Amino acid sequence: MDGIRICGAIFDMDGTLLDSMHIWEEVSVGFLRRRGIEPKPTFKEDVRMMTLEESAYFARNEYGITESVPEIIESIYDAVREFYRTEVQMKTGAREFLQRLAAANIPMCLATATDRPFAEMALERLGIAKLFCEIFTCTEVGAGKNRPDIFLAAAEKMGVRPENTMVFEDSYPALVTAKEAGFLLSGVWDRMSPDRQGEMQEISHLYIRDFYAALDKIGSMLD
Questions:
Q1: What is the CATH number of the domain that holds 173?
Q2: Helix axes 21-33, 69-86, angle to 10 degrees
């Protein structure tokens, strides 16, 4: 980590800052099972970086769902809306970590596959919305995190170069996308994705299993 200088930070939301990945997996799997369809073992990884619209198309094409894309989206929306509005919690130490970056005048953006209404209601309720200069969603950018568009848009908004911008992600494929675009990487452990932690640690400049423990490590990158 010697010589690394962070001038901007891009945070994923679900599974990175918020302990929320379980709700999307529970709802998506439940959606299929209520229709008598057992998801394939790869289902969770298949849809992990997709927008909600992309995952709806995927469900129709891969599993033969007959409902329209808007109907699929609305069904999932109904199931998760209340969770984001009233229940979702931050990862341990995440609030203090964000405050540490804000105190160092590091601009921060959110880059999430979750649609804006859910992101906004969660960040507002948790009192951290004002820490971010912008929210970018895959839906609005027009690409999932298998492409670097969302990360590049956030870096441009902050006026910082990718090589001085750290992307915080709990998804290994998203980290690979960011790496190929020249960003600094921080892998974030999440209980819902334990399988690729070794690979995440290997490619990351910073690995966060606990945000409290990472506070000391981040200090040398901000000075």
A1: 3.40.50.1000
A2: 140
